[in-house]
Amino acid sequence: MKKIALTLFLCLLIAGTIFAGGGRQRAAQVTDTIVIRSFGDPISFTPNWRADDGSYAIQQNMFHRLTKLDADKGPIGDLAHSWNVTNNGLTITFNLKNNVTWHDGRPVTSADVKYTFDTIKAEPTYFFSPNMSIVDSIDAPNAYTVVFNMNTADVGFIAQIGWYATFILPRHIYDNGMRWEDNPIANNPIGSGPFRFGEYRPGISTTLLAYDNYHEGRPPVDRLIFQIIPDDATAVQAIINGEIDVFEGAPAANLDELRANASLQNRLNKYPSPIRLHFNFEVEAIRDPVLRRAIAMTIDREDIAMKVSQGVQTPEYNMYPSYYPWASNSVNTAPRFDIPGAVRLLEQAGYTRNASGFFVQGLTLTLFNLEPSPDIAMLIQASAAQAGIGIVLEILDIAAWSTKVGIERDFMIQMQGGFMGPDPAAMIPIFGTGGARNYGNYSNPQVDDLLRRGGEVLDQNQRARFYHEAQRIMADELPYIPIIDYAAYDFFDARLVNLPIDGAGQWGWQEYTHTYFR
Fold first, then answer.
1. Listed residue (89, 164, 174, 74) closest to 134, CA to CA
2. What is the DSSP string of 162-180?
3. Burial zone of 266 (CB within 10 Å; 0-12 exposed, 13-18 middle, 19+ buried)
4. Do 372 and 306 contact (CB within 8 A), yes or no?
């Protein structure tokens, strides 16, 4: 998948070679194989210890979760066919399918689910572990029932476990005293999904094979090949030539060419993953809300959207993605573009220009070197200068950015993308005091309380009131500034049916269980 999550465009672009196919004729002759463009090598084939864009789609097709996200980025059942939440929200009971087997033939039971989440909770370095702090214990009263006993009500938890790093693992294989990431089974993983592991060729491809005994019936194609093509231009040529069948997130510069190709179909894929600026509240200068607001007023979202995506990615002003309209506050938003207004705001607050004409200089914006981040940053830098705000760009590779921002938290302003779904409860780790992904150390007890209360009630309208009020406060304090949403066109061989993106409410996002060539 191209860009979800923590970091929708935080993918490792690792050099590789393309599939040596014979043009569109290859696809015409081989209809038992779907070839999917992948950006880079997986970190590991053992899921859950990290969030890994490079292996997300692979894991989606090899493993189950209790719930999974569909094409609308909302939760639907996966291993769990249904669930119940008590009125106080402190007990969540998942009812499991009773006919699912591991790829070695053994049944998948509640013992596997309990083992998986108990291990995640016990290992603080595993990606989902912070989310497990609200779970006191997990019971498995019978082979196909799992009960989560919560210390804090959070109905958003049901959606959260359908996102990253929550894949159910076979206890009979992994429970051997080794940490998951050190277990040699990573070289030949055993899951329970529609496809089983076939082959991994570093820098080239990963192949999955149809699981004959899949509980929903054998998939209609024999194999999936995730072909590693880091370069967008190479990927464009590959899908035109028929060397790949699926290309997610095509570059805006090639849209007209690809849409005119009769051998391809396309879908616009939107994500709750706005590209945005985050401020570090440990830095004295950035603590001034006047300066943060002035910076926000220098961002011309409409201009940015057209220049970096030809308008495919649209301006985002809401403090929680407008992708989820029920939870997003469209009234209390980030300020609009207004350079004269930004100048007046700074002057009224007592800022004065120096000999170079700047009110403030030396503000450092840290970002990674994956498009469209550098282009967006340069546009922001230029417009901020018009208002007398001097911004210096620090452009790093993704690994260095992750260390500096995510681990060391050594930045003034940073730019990122990243998934803010599948439920507004996702705001807690990003903006809640002490949150695992609250890199800028923003803290407001009132916001904390509102976000907590939003997870405690079952009624969506009541939840929305709490989240809207939290966003009203955040729109005033501006711990971050949304810029543009993330959206892109995905292209597919025109003969493919039951695409993953077409399965809202039926199958998972990036799941190929039902996809085949007509």
1. 89
2. TSSS-----HHHH-SSS-G
3. middle
4. no
